[in-house]
Structures are given as structure tokens and as C-alpha cells.
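Troubleshooting entry. Yesterday's outputs looked truncated, so today I'm pasting the complete records for two proteins to confirm everything comes through intact. If either block looks cut off, that's the bug. Protein one:
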Amino acid sequence: MKTSVLSGAVLLFSAVLISAGGTAPVAGQEAPDTTAERRVTVLNPAIATKLVERVPLAPRTPSLEGKTLYLVDLQWGGPEAAYSVFEEMRDWFARNIPSVKIEIRRSAGGPFGDDAGLRKEILASGAAGAVIGIGG
């Protein structure tokens, strides 16, 4: 037991010496400047001096009675992750506001892509709104 602890201590000490990066400079000599080798370029996370143009939110629909509402699953967490949540929402509308037509769709672009076909479908249908997101 003592031998293995002693061997481990010797190995650890050797690793520390090796990682220390050599020996200290001799008295009277300056250490070489290695800062140029270690410099890194970073991006400044501060905002730009000019703010982007603000666009107001769309006006609120006074009522959903008789309207179409799209529920778009972005497939975050897999193709079945949000579907159960959207199905519950559809069932709620069927019980509480049955005149609302609910369309559940999956985005082919996934959570980070675009689905131009689905966007065109929603615009062409004249839907009152779309809930786009994830669930679960």
C-alpha cells in the first residue's frame, strides 16, 4: 500500500515539474517574452452604437370565433416531442371554442431552419394566427 501511494506521489510530482514549463531564469537574466504567442482575438459582446429599427407587434385579433389557428411544431427534442401538447391544445379548442379550426403542422426546417412551403401555406390560408414553438 505504501509503495503504491509513494509511486503515485512521485508520478504526480513529475507531472507537476513537466507541466511547469522549464526552469526559472538565471539571476540577472530576464525571462523571454512569450505573451505574443498567447494572445487571442475575441469579439466584443457589447451592442452596436446603432439600434435596429423596431417593428410593432401585429394587432390583436378581437376573437378567434370561426378562425383558423396553426400550431407549428419545430421538432425540438424529436418529431414527437411537442405533438401531444398541440393535440391537447386542439382538444381544448374543440371543447371550449368549437368554431376555431386548428391545423397542426411540423416544420420541415426543424428548430433552426426555415420551411418556406409551410409559411406560404399559412399565409395562403388566411389564418388568424400561428403558435410556433416547442412543447413537452
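Protein two, checking that the full record survives here as well:
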Amino acid sequence: MNATPVIQCRGVTVAYGRDVVLDRIDLTVPRGALLPFVGPNGAGKTTLLKACLGLIPHQGGEILCDFGGLPPAYVPQQKQIDPIYPVSVRDLVRMGLYPEIRCWGRFNCGRNARVARILTRFGLEEHQHKHFGELSGGLRQKALLARAVVTQASVLVLDEPTAGLDATSEADLLNLIRSLHEDEGKTVLWVHHRLDQCVALARQVCLVDKRGVRLTDCLEVAS
């Protein structure tokens, strides 16, 4: 088993202009982690993950990543996706395969079967021909997550996946996230706001606040 950390941050600084969001932080994310990033609004949770993915620049320090061959699958905040985007749920999930197809050809029976399996697993089979905008918030988030999972990436990065969901949809999605980790061994990193839910799901939590960034055992947080 590869014991190399998925992400290592060494003295990393990230700023927007003169506004320093993360100041010389250190962080090691172990492979196979189920790790929520928790902290107050504006503390830098999303900024940290985007910097680790190379989506935004960092102004100091070093970020080392080993995502296991395939690029990580990133699910942005749902509010960043236009709900009137004219695409069916099935086609949205198929979009996750576009990079693979550009390298290896076209949609074949194997890839179509993979899409079908993901739709079924995520409870989206009966909704697959609906437009994305017709779905409830919980189903939209499942569709976005399905698009990420169909890539077969071993690392999933989710930005506030439960934001705006009702309690039932939130619990359903969190259970799905946990199953992706437990059943498939995926490394799952996600931004979350409720520490009590994180304690129930994960062994460790990454706290991001004015004191900096640090991994903490959930048992210590709960005590």
C-alpha cells in the first residue's frame, strides 16, 4: 500500500492581494483519509483545498501532491452551477468521462455501463433523462458527485456538498460520502460547517480558524 501522503503543505501562504488568508501553514493529509475541513466562514477552508488542487496560486511555501495516477475529482459548490444549464442528468454524469475519452477514444459499452452503474448506485436512474434544473437540491448534489465518481479518481474533493440541503437530503449525502470511503477506499476531503456531524463520520477533522490549520482527532473534539 502506498503510504505517501496525498497532500503535504509546508509553510504555505495564500493571499488575495494584501489579504492573507492562510499564513505559513503546515498540513499532511494521509492517503485514504475521510477528512472534513471545518471552521468559521472566511477562515480559508475552500481556499486551502483550491490551492492544493492548483486552482488558485499560493504565494509562499510548498505544496506536494500525490493523487495516485488520476487527477482528483473536484465538486464545486452547487451554487456555482447554473441550475438552468440545459443538460440531462445522464449527460452531466457522462461529462466526467470527457477527459478519458479525449485520450482513449469514444463512449463504448464499458463506459456507458459505468455511467449506468453510477446512476443506479446514486439513486438517479429514474431521473437520468430529466434536466439538471428539474431536480431537488439533494438530487442535484448527488448528480454532481456522480459526475466526479464516474472518473474513477481515488481522491474526491468536495466544497460544501451539503450546503442548502434539508436534513434528510444532508444525511443521505453524508452516508453516501462515507460509503465511498469505506466501500471503495477513496480519499475524501470536504468542506463542512457542522462539527457534530463530522465527529460522527470521521476519525479526524481538519480545523481551519484564526489559530491556523491543524488535524485533530474527533475524540478530542468531542470531549
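Both blocks look complete. Sanity check on protein two: The first strand starts at residue 7 and ends at 16.
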